[in-house]
Amino acid sequence: MTDIHFPPRELAVMSVLWRLGSATVADVRDAMDDDLAYTSVLSALQTLTDKGYVRHEPEGRAYRYFPAVAAERAGRSALTRIKDAIYQGSAERMFTQLVSDKQLSREEMERMRSLLDERLGEDA
């Protein structure tokens, strides 16, 4: 599981699991923006389980599903694909796009600056 890629529906299901920590099929369905059939959500969870991204435990007559891969790990994989495909492998170009976003709050930019300062201090 080095490169993680989720099609849109699987990503939506994973997003719910990451946010809630665990959920039943009904919980996932209720938390999703799309109005999907129970069987569609169940199918996505079964696929994610088969791929090793989700695990489940019995809970009464149903199952409770848990993410088996951290959001940060999936995010790293997605950002690498975006960096390579859109920014020709340049982290600097991708970062420039991020910081030029007018919707970033001052607090978010300050936290980004602190992270950069911290990282630069590691190289000294």
Question: What does this molecule look like?
Answer:
This protein has helices spanning 8-20, 25-31, 38-51, 71-86, 91-99, 106-122; strands spanning 54-59, 62-67. With 124 residues, the protein is mainly α. It has a two-stranded antiparallel ribbon with strand order 1-2. Helix 2 packs across helix 3 (38-51). The longest helix has 17 residues, at 106-122. It is elongated. The relative contact order is 0.11. The model has no long low-confidence stretch (mean pLDDT 92).
Strand order of the largest sheet: 1-2
Query: How many E strands?
Result: 2
Level of helix content? 55-70%
Q: How big a fraction of the residues is strand? A: 5-15%
Average pLDDT rating: 92
Question: Stretches where pLDDT falls below 50 for ≥5 residues?
Answer: none
Task: Give me the number of helical elements.
Answer: 6
Any idea what the shape is?
A: elongated
Oligomer: single chain
Q: Give the biggest beta sheet.
A: 2 strands, antiparallel
Gyration radius, rounded = 18 Å
H/E topology pattern: HHHEEHHH
Terminus-to-terminus distance: 34 Å
Decide which structural class fits the backbone.
mainly alpha
Keyword list:
124 residues; mainly alpha; two-stranded antiparallel sheet
Short recap of the structure:
The protein is mostly helical. 61% of the residues lie in helices and 10% in strands.
